[in-house]
Amino acid sequence: MFEPAGLVDLLAQVLRCREPRALLEALTIDEEGACGFPAGRTFLYMRGDAGLHRHPAESDDDCDHLLDAVHDALRTGRRTLLNAAGWQTHVLPLSCEGPPWGALAVALDGGSGDGAWRDRPEALDVLAECCARALSAHAGGREHADGAAHAGCAAHTDGPAHTDGTRLDEAAQAAQAGVFAWDFTADNVYWDERTCAIYGVDPATFDGKGETFFALLYPDDVPLLQAAIARVTEEVVTAQARGAAEEAGRYHLGYRVRHADGSVHSVAEYGRVILDDQGRPARALGLVMETGAEHDRSPRGSVSADSSRDSFLFTLTRALSQAITVQDVTRVMTQLARPALGAENLVLGIEEAGRLTIVGETAVAPSLSHLRGPAHTVMAMAALQEQALFIEDLSRHTGPELAELAATGDVPPRSWVVLSLGSTDHITGACLIAFAGPRKFDSGERTFYTAVAVILTQSLERALLFDTEHQRATDLQEAMLPRHLPTLDSLEVHSRYLPGTQGMHIGGDWYDLLPLRDGTAALVIGDVQGHDAHASAVMGQLRVALRACAEAGLPPGALLGQVNRVLCDLDTDRFATCTYLVLDPKAGTLLGARAGHLHPLRIQRGVVSEVVLTGGPPLGVDPAAVFPTTTTAVAGDEALVLFTDGLVERRDADIDVCVRNMIDDIHRWGNLSEQEVDLGELVEFLAGRDAPERIDDVALLAVQRVAGAGA
């Protein structure tokens, strides 16, 4: 298995490649234990005027499944995985800004070297980022450094937006720059030999820890860099939320480091913050160069530590103001505040029924796991005392709050900041921020952390209130949705509900299955406008009205007309879309009507198409609206899929295109032309193609006639 140093060396080689052949040579393993991929199983796909070009072109391994995976990666911008012929092929989209313009396909056969890549898939994402950066000129991709550092930190840009990107390329090509990768989750830093030299560190002894990097910084530049890291991280998360992640995350920083001999060296850092599949800051990747004191033009003389701390607090306040739930608050503290502060660990707890409950905690090294219990005890004590604790050297601290440490074994030199969260009339919780090694907290730092506690308390209390209201709304929604669907011998039925991903995480989507007196079955799917408790309440009212009209035997068009008038009379200021089908399992006859909803799908071997229903407007808009009934038939081996728009809708994409993309995905899934549809697996697949940018809730209902039902 390759070591982190081997990975960074590979990244450095890749960044210096400027054409596909050289890059493929750099990626290919040429010796046992090297960091790379098998020869003949690594391919580059790049878009051109004549279509998709592959390198190497002479290979004949382009199976349809691999090409489908490549097209999926190019369309979605997400890594895809293909298992075929004993190989596990990862297809990684390549892009610098905007949509992907290429893809890297690497095949792993399960060997010892491949295990490192399988165990650390995030390394593949870092590699793809380097490949895209290296080939951007060849592919016609556009690069620039965003210069996204805060005006009050030691960061700057020179000249037009493209200047930083050009300088980065030139530096890498001339081998004057070092390569780094910083894993935020594990707080691991990977440096190549050039980077180690710039920072004055021996590669053989470098421990790869984030706090080691902060310890090398010139003291006056620590708060400046903390503010810059927090700002860049917050900007890229915010940009991701509004669907514009390519606009942020790239940065250029200037700061100083102190070598072991006491000499001070100026460093320029060009990098990018990369998000994971969940939209969370996962790593930073980039280059560093030593600029020399005579070239150092960062505005340190006019920037004080206090103003930099104010900048950090401003960024933290802005990030926490967008945190809705307790989980969101925890994410900001662990993924933004902890890396920016250079902290080793961060633990967040809330008071519940007189006890401290831990709601967020970053990973702890096994050698430090025995400190977890004492840490939680100290947090509970700080919360009760309503006073922050500053423990400058854990190994030398003798206070009563750490009495149980003596029984835990050796205590390594560590420093803790334990913040009490709450107000004069109640306790909210506590937060512990742990640093490696002893640390002196001066009056400025103590004031700074007290301000962090005030900001965190306000955000946490707001999030706790939201979570309470959300739980009540969720309980209401669960009461309105069917707990289970009836079992019918003549139909196989599968359903799924997925909550929304933003706001209250609830909505008005629903599904239903109603056995009718004549032996037919009513299939219902609907979506009430809004994502709140009101939408759930209206959904419950519509379910009752639909059920009553169905039991009365009304045909689909007449039923929707009656329910439409009911919703208009309720004066809820909400509208709803709905599809109502009546299926005869024996004869296969299908009657349906639609009120502003998406068409259902019919799926048979090799064929996926829409069941086109003549539609009317959404329910609740026009009390005089008419909803025609459409008659069609369903074959015995056909599956019907009813769904709400949350399943297919994607940001800034036409809904018809989104439906077409889902149909294409179903075609590729399982090779439908060769096998019957497994309804359960189909529903799992559709629910599993969920996209990170989805915000709406989803209702999904799939049915299929059981063989022999017509006998």
From TrEMBL:
Q: Which residues form the PAS domain?
A: 164-236
Q: Which UniProt keywords apply?
A: Hydrolase
Keyword Hydrolase attached: yes
- Highest taxon of source: Bacteria
- InterPro entries tied to this protein: Bact_Sigma-Reg (IPR052016), GAF-like_dom_sf (IPR029016), PAS (IPR000014), PAS-like_dom_sf (IPR035965), PAS_fold_3 (IPR013655), PPM-type-like_dom_sf (IPR036457), PPM-type_phosphatase-like_dom (IPR001932)
Keyword Metal-binding present in the record's keywords: the answer is no
Q: Which Pfam families match?
A: PAS_3, SpoIIE
CDD domains in the record? PAS (cd00130)
Which PROSITE patterns does the record match to this protein?
Answer: PAS
Question: In its UniProt entry, what is this protein called?
Answer: SpoIIE family protein phosphatase
- Protein species of origin: Streptomyces xantholiticus
